[in-house]
Amino acid sequence: MRPLWHITRLMWRAGPWAMWRGAAAALAVLVMGTALLGLSGWFITAAGAAGIAGVGIAFDVFRPSAGVRFLALGRAGARYAERLLTHDTTLRALASLRLAVLEQLEQRPIASLRQLRSGAGLNRIIADVDALDGLLLRLVLPVIAGLLTHLGALALIWWLAGAQIALSLSVGYLVGSGLVLWRAAKSAVAPSVEAETARQTLRHDVIGLLRGRRDVIVQGLLPKTRIEIDAAEAQATSAERHLSRIDERTALRLSLVVTLCTAAALALGQLAVRAGTIDAATAAIGVFVALALAETVLPLRRGLADLGRMHSAARRLLRDGTTGHPTALSPITPDTSRGLTVTDLTVARPGRQVAVSAPLSLTLHPGDVVALAGPSGHGKSTLLDALAGLTNPLSGQVILAGIPLSDWPETQLRDCLTLVPQRTSLIGGTVRENLALSVDTLTDGAAWAALQTVCMTDVIARVGGLDGVLGEAGSGLSGGEARRLALARAVLRAPKVLLLDEPTEGLDDALARDVLAGLKKALPECAILMAAHRPAETEFATRTISVKRHITKTEYI
Amino acid sequence: MAAKIDLVPEQRRALARAKALAIAADLLWLAQAASIAILIAGWLDGGVAQPVLWVTLFVSAGSLRAILSARAGRIAFDLGQQVVSLTRRRLLDREAPRPNSTLSSAEVAAMVTDKIPLLAPDISRYRIAFARVKVVPIVLLLVVLSQSWAAAAILLVTGPLIPVFMALVGMAARDASAKQMVEIGAVNRVLVDHIAALPDIRLLGGFDRSRRAFAVHVDSLRERTMAVLRIAFLSSTVLELFAAIGMAMVAVYVGFTLLGEINFGTWRGTMTPATGIFILLLVPEFFQPLRDLAAAWHDKAAADAVRDDLENAAGDETAAILGAGGRVTPLDGPVMIRVREAQVLRGARHIALPDIDLGPGQSLALTGPSGAGKSTALDALAGLLPLSSGHISVQGVPLDDAHADAWRARIAMVPQRLHMPDAALHDILDPHGTGANLADALSRADATDVVAALPDGLDTRLGETGAGVSGGEARRLLLARALFSGADIIIADEPTADLDTDTAARIIAALRRAQSAGATVIVASHDPNLIAAMDRVVSLSGPDS
Fold first, then answer.
1. Looking at beta carbons, which residues of chain A come within 8 Å of B477?
2. Which segments constitute the ABC transmembrane type-1 domain (chain B) (predicted)?
3. Residues of chain B contacting residue A215, judged by C-beta atoms under 8 Å apart
4. d(CA A56, CA A427)
5. B210 vs A433: CB contact, 8 Å cut-off?
6. A218 and B501 in contact by Cβ < 8 A?
7. Residue B136's closest CA among B31, B22, B16?
8. Is A103–B211 a contact, with Cβ atoms under 8 angstroms apart?
9. Best residue in A63, A90, A91, A501 to probe B by mutation, most B CBs within 10 Å?
10. pLDDT tens by residue, B335-356
C-alpha cells in the first residue's frame, strides 16, 4: 500500500486546508444524518410515552422539534458544501498529481520522450492518472468521515444508553464492515488489475487490427484476427464480471451487517428496557442510529473495488519517476567566443550500435552559418541530436565553448545551445503561452520581435494576437506556420549555438529565404548549423558540409 | 436524438425480472419498519408478546432484501455487459472490413475501450432506479395514507414536486456531469499536449516554465468548472432539501399527534406510537429511489452521448471490402486482369478507373496527379473497394464477394502508409507462421542489411513500442514480406515516395527482379524512374473528370 500512501500524501499536500474542509463537510453530512434519525426516533418515542402517560402538556416539544428542523436543513446544506468542497479538492489534487507525473517524465531520456508522443505509453499514463481519480473522493475522505462519525456515535450512545449498546454497535459495525470491506479489497486486487490489463490489451489489439487492416485483409487473416479480438474482448468482459460479483457480494454482506447491528440494537434495547436500566426513548436512539450508520459503510465499497487498479496505477506512476535521475554536473565557465568544434563524430540510431554516417569533423565560429547536406536517412538528424547533447555519440569529440559537451550541466547547456528538430510540438493554449516556454518573463515587445523574425506577425494577428488560442497541439496553424512558431521560440532563447533540422520544410522558396535572413538578423553572433536539403538553405549558408553514408561492413551480417 | 437500446425478448424479460426484484427488495422495508415500530412501541406499554419473533422477522426481511437486491444487481449488470459486448462486436464488424473508413483507428479504439462500456450503467443503474421510482414511492404513500392522511399529505406536497424536480435535477445533473467530463477531458488533453511537447520543452530549458503554465491553465479550468458545479449542485440540493423537510415535518407532526397536541390527520382520531414510528421509518425510503435516480442520471446522459457517437459512426458511408478477408484456396490459372468502364465511389465523388488488360509477368504503372485516384484504383483491383459501376474480372471470373478472397490469396500489397505491427519482425514477414527460411526473400528485396543492423535481427520487435526503422528500410522489409508470401501479383502504392534516389533505385531493382521471376507488378507512382522501369503506364486524369 506504500505507493497509494505516497500518492495520497502528494494529493493531500495540493491543498491541505481544502482537504480538511472537504473532510469536515463530509463528516458534518454523516453526523447530521445520524443525529437527525436518532433525534426523530427519540422524539417520537418520547412523545408516545408522554402521550400514554397523559403528561403531553408538560413535554418540551420546542427544543426537539427545532433540533429536527435544524438537522434536516443543516444536513441538506452540509451536503451541498460537501459536494462542492470535495470536488474542488479532488480537482486540485488531480492537478498536482498530473504536475508530479509531468515532473517525473522530464527525467526520461530523449528517445523515450519522443516515443511517448504518440501511442501506448501516453495512453497508459493518462489511464493511470485517471485511475487515481477516486482515491480521495471515494476512499480517503469517506473513510476518515465514516470513522469519526462512528467515534461520535459511540461516545453519544455510551453516554445516553450505556456501554453495552454503544460497544455492540461500534464493534458490530467496525469489525463486521471492516472484515467485509477488507476481504472485498483483498479479493478485488487481482481482478481489478486483470480488468485494467485486459482493457489495455483490447485497446492495443483494436488499434493494431484497424491500422493494419489492409494487410490483414490481403493476407486473408481478417476472420482469424477478429476471433482473437473477440477473445480479448471476452477476457475484458469476464474480468469486469468477476469484479462486479465481488462488488455484489460485498454490498450483500454490508447490508447484512447493517441488519444484524440494528437487530442487536433492538434486542439489547428490549432487554435494557425490560430490566428498567434505560427508558424506551433512549433505547430507540440506539436503533435509529444503527440504521443511520449504514450511510457510513455502504458507499465505501466502490472505492475499495478499485483499490487494486489504483494501487498498480500508483506503483507504475511512481516507478516511472524513480528511473534515470541524471547526476548533477558541477557548473562550468564556458568561453562562448570559441564556438563549436566537432572531431570524428559518429552516431547510431536509437537502440543500434552501427554508425549511420561517416565520421564528421567541423568547426563552427560565432556568426557562422553552416549547412549539413546529404540525402535523407544518412543520419543528419541523429548527428544534430548528439551535438545538442540529447544522445551520446558512438565515437568522436564535441567541444562547445571550450568545454567537452558531456561536462555541461543541462541548464547551462540549454542556455547556450538550442536545437529546433524536424518534428516540433506546440501546446494547446495561447500563442503567448507557447512563446513563454522559452523565457521566464516575456514582454509583448520581445514576443512580437521574435514573431517578426520568422515572418509570423500577420499569421498571429489573424489568430487573435498573442492571446489568440491555438487548439490541441497547436492546431489552427498550418504545418509551416507551426514550424515558424517553433523557430520563434528558439530565437527568444537567444542561443550562442543554434542547430536547425531542415528549418524551412513546408515553406515556399521566398518565405524560406526571408525566414533565414530574419534569423540571421536577430541572432548575428550566433553560430548556426542546419541540416539542409533545399537550395534556399544551402545557398544561405556560408559553408556546406556533406554527410556521407557510413559504409556497412560485412562483419555485421 | 439518441437511439433506444435494442434488447432481444429474453433480455427484456431479464430486465423486467431485475426491476421486479429491485422493487420487491425496496418493499420488504415495510416488514422491517413494522417490526421495529411494534418492538419499540412495545417498550412503552409493557412489551410485545413475542419479541424474538419480531426481531427474527426484521432480520429475515433484511436478509431477503439484501439477497433480492444483489440478485437484481447481478441480472442488470450481466445485461449491461451483454449490450456492451454486442455493441463492441458490431462496431468492429463494421470497421474491420473498411480500410478506407473515415474514422481513425484511435477513435474506434477509444469507443471500444472507453465509451461503449458507458452503456452498461444506463441499464444496470439508471433503468432500475427509474423502475423503482415509478412504483416504490406510490406504494409507500398509499401505506402511509392508510394510517394518516396528514402524513400522506406532507409526502404528497414534497413528493409530487418530484417529477418537476426530477426534470430540474436531471437537466442540471446532465449539465454538471457533461461539464465535469469536459473538465477531466480538458485537463487530460492539456497534460497530453505538455507530455508530447517534452522533447521541445527540454531543448528550450523550459521544464519549470512548462509546469507553471500547466498549473495556471489547469487552475483556471478548475475555477470555471467549480462555477458551473456551484449552480448544478444547487438543484440536487433542492431534492435533498425537500426530502429533509418531508422528514422533519412528518417527525414533528407525528410527535405532536402522539402528545395529543394535534388532533387531526388520522382516520380514527388518534395515532398509536407504533403507527407513528412506522410512518417515520417509511419517509426516508419514500425519497431514496428518487435520490438514486438523480445519482444515476449522469449514467443515462453519458450513455446517450455514446449512442449519438455510434449513430454518427454508422453514418459513415465508406463501402466494405468484397469478400470476408479470409484465407481460402487461391484462384487458379495464369494471371488475367480485365477492367472495363469501372467506377468507384469515393466519398461523394465517382472515380473512373482506366480500362486495363494485364497478364502474367507483366508490369503496370498507374500515374497521375495527387487525388486522381491511384490508390483507389489499386484498392479496387485488390477487391478492397467495390465498384459503383462497370466491372473487373480476374482469371475470367467477376471480382465479387464470392471470388475476392480467392483472388487476394494471390496478391501481396506494399501499402503507401507504412504501418509496422507491434510484433517481432519474423512474425510480420511470415504472418501465417509457416516457419520457412526468410533469407532468400530478404536478399531479393535487398533487405538483408536492414535485418543485420537490427539489435535482435529477426526477433526485433518493431512498431510502436519497438525499435524504429527508417521509411526506406520499412519499404524494403514489406517488399520482402510480399516476395516471401509467394504471391504472383505484387501491388505497391508509391513504393519510392520520400526516399532518396539511392534507396529508391534499390526498391525499383527489387521490383524488377520480382517481375523477371514471373510476378505481375502493379504500382501507383509519380516517380519517373519507377514509371520508366514498368512495361506499361496508364495515366489517371485529375479529380474533375
1. none
2. 20-302
3. 413, 415, 419, 421, 431
4. 73
5. no
6. no
7. B22
8. yes
9. A91
10. 999 999 999 887 777 888 889 9
Residues B191, A98: C-beta atoms closer than 8 Å = yes
Q: Exposed, middle or buried, A399 (CB in 10 Å: 0-12/13-18/19+)?
A: middle
Residues A392, A399: Cα–Cα separation, whole Å:
13
Name the CATH topology of A2-317: ABC transporter transmembrane region fold (1.20.1560)
What is the average per-residue pLDDT within B47-56? 88
A101 and B CB contact within 8 Å? yes
Structure confidence by residue, pLDDT tens digits, B466-488:
456 777 788 888 889 999 998 98
Strand-pair partners of B536: B364
In the structure grid, which three cell numbers stand for residue A389, read together? 547533447
Distance from CA of B105 to the nearest CA of A (A): 5
Nearest CA to A250 out of A169, A176, A174, A146 is that of A176
Q: Work out whether strand B389-394 and strand B337-346 pair parallel, antiparallel, or are unpaired.
A: antiparallel
- Taking residue A485's Cβ as centre, other Cβ atoms within 10 Å add up to 23
Grid cell for residue A437 = 516556454
Q: Express each pLDDT in A200-233 by its tens digit.
A: 899 889 988 998 899 999 999 999 999 999 999 9
Q: Do B382 and A106 make contact, defined as CB atoms within 8 angstroms?
A: no
Average pLDDT over residues A433-439: 93
Would you call A260 an interface residue with chain B, using a CB distance cutoff of 8 Å?
yes
Grid cell for residue B412: 501481396
pLDDT at A552 exceeding the cut of 60: no
Q: Which residues of B touch A378 (CB under 8 A)?
A: 500
Contacts of B453 in chain A (CB under 8 A): 352, 354, 552, 556
CATH class of A336-556: alpha beta
As beta bridge partners, residue A364 has A340
d(CA B212, CA A153): 45
The ranges of chain B annotated as CATH 3.40.50.300 are: 337-539
* Mean pLDDT, chain A, integer: 88
Q: Of all residues in chain A, what percent carry a pLDDT higher than 90?
A: 49
B29 near B136, Cβ under 8 Å? no
More confident residue, A350 or B532: B532
pLDDT at res. A228:
94
pLDDT at B34: 96
Q: What is the CA radius of gyration of chain B?
A: 35
Q: Do B254 and A424 touch (CB under 8 A)?
A: no
pLDDT band at A18 (very low <50, low <70, confident <90, very high): confident
Helix axis angle for A280-292 and A16-53, nearest 10°, is 150
- Chain A, 407 to 446: residues with Cβ < 8 Å from chain B are 410-411, 414-415, 418-421, 424-429, 433, 436-440
SS3 A306: coil
Summary count for chain A: helices (H), strands (E)? 22, 11
B-chain residue closest to A418, CA distance: B203
In chain B, ranges of CATH 1.20.1560.10 domains: 9-314
Instruction: Give residue-wise pLDDT tens across range B98-147.
Output: 988 888 887 888 889 888 999 999 999 999 999 999 999 999 999 999 99
Fold assignment, B337-539: Rossmann fold (3.40.50)
Q: For chain B, what percent of residues have pLDDT higher than 90?
A: 49
Q: What average pLDDT does chain B have?
A: 86
- In CATH, what is the architecture of B9-314? Up-down Bundle (1.20)
User: What is the pLDDT, as a whole number, of residue A91?
Assistant: 86
Of B78, B255, B500, the CB nearest to A375: B500
Task: State the smallest CA–CA distance between residue B503 and chain A in angstroms.
Answer: 9
Is the confidence at residue A291, as pLDDT, over 90? yes
Percent of chain A surpassing pLDDT 70: 95
Q: Which residues of B touch A534 (CB under 8 A)?
A: none
So where are chain A's domains? 2-317, 336-556
